[in-house]
Design a protein that fits this description.
Strands 1, 2, 3, 4, 5, 6, 7, 8 and 19 form a nine-stranded mixed sheet that branches. Strands 9, 10, 11, 14, 15, 16, 17 and 18 form an eight-stranded mixed sheet that branches. This protein has a two-stranded antiparallel ribbon with strand order 12-13. Helix 11 runs parallel beside helix 12. It contains twelve helices and 19 strands. It is an alpha/beta fold. The two termini are about 20 Å apart. The protein has two domains: about 325 residues, Ribonuclease Z/Hydroxyacylglutathione hydrolase-like (Metallo-beta-lactamase, Chain A, 4-Layer Sandwich); about 35 residues, no CATH class. The structure holds zinc ion (2 copies). The site of one zinc ion has 4 residues, from loops. Its cofactor is Zn(2+). It comes from Mastacembelus armatus (zig-zag eel). Keywords: Endonuclease, Hydrolase, Metal-binding, Nuclease, tRNA processing, Zinc. This is ElaC ribonuclease Z 1.
Length: about 375
Amino acid sequence: MTMDMTFLGTGSAYPSPHRGASALVLRTDGDCWLFDCGEGTQIQLMRSQLRAGRITKIFISHLHGDHLFGLPGLLCRVSLNTNPNPEQNLSCVDIYGPQGLRRFLRVTLGLTGSQLLFPYAVHELEPTPEQSPEEGRLSLEMTTECGPLHPQEQLGRTISLDISSDCYLLFEDPKFVVKAFRLFHRVPSFGFCVQERDRPGRLKTELLKELGLKPGPLYGRLKAGESVTLESGRVVLPSEVLEEAIPGRKVCILGDCSSILGIGPLMLCTGADVLVHEATLGNEQKEKAVDHGHSTPEMAAAVARTCCALRLVLYHFSQRYKPSSLQKEGDEDCVSELRRQAEEALEDSSVEVILAEDFLTLPIPLRKPK
Ligand SMILES: [Zn+2]
Ligand SMILES: [Zn+2]
């Protein structure tokens, strides 16, 4: 299965002509999962190779506008790209995000009279008080749902923190387990961990032939982990005839933060193939960054080191950092300096540092068997 990640917006605070507001797409075999949806994401999407109609799940890290203002418009855009054939049973777009998101969508879609051709459900994560300063917590009146469901809205789940693992289980299916975890920011913010399940290794066909097994349903049963009994009575165990399992990939995408809450998330992110971490300002502005609930390259590097990530991708840059391609001689704020700062902090490790730019597509290759 192919897996890659495309950055649609890598700027913080607002979209600018040279950097879109936060949004990235994780693509697995053509299915697109969108992480954050800043203003202008639909235009960025049209300028990319991705297709809006392929978005099946959306994850919103927190309710700041630079991560959310694009969502109602994007949903309408996806609807335009949807085949209106009434025979077709359209699947529900699942949207995950902090408490308040359900109300935000119901109000914006409702007041604008926006109808969608597909159903959607908002699954809300319950934040805890430790995730932000007191002024960042939303009052009950702000997050309480209001009015009836939007005509295309299906009932979503409310997901609470699992105290034992310090994480939120968003969903699991035969291919993936997706969890969220708590971050500290000016408002409650979350990180997401997409864990692909390990897959069985290839069948040792030569050995199977020697055992007298012909290709067919029995091969499928062995691959699915079942034992098979031959006519002779000999039991063939999957472990005998399967090569080593193919380890699942792990992708961790953190929303805005100045720190991660708890040990559980660090364990969850251990060994990530890709860790996407914000680096809003350079190390020399650490105090300002932390004051605003943000991180520096050095802080992002420390997380990547603790988690033994293979690759650290920096994004969510202050708009003062122009993309390298637009950099002019004498420009003071140089985005490549942010990479240098992270690399310096990871000098004695094997973590690779990547600077995200709008429209960068990062392939996430399969891992070799352990
Ligand atoms: Zn932001
Ligand atoms: Zn923010």
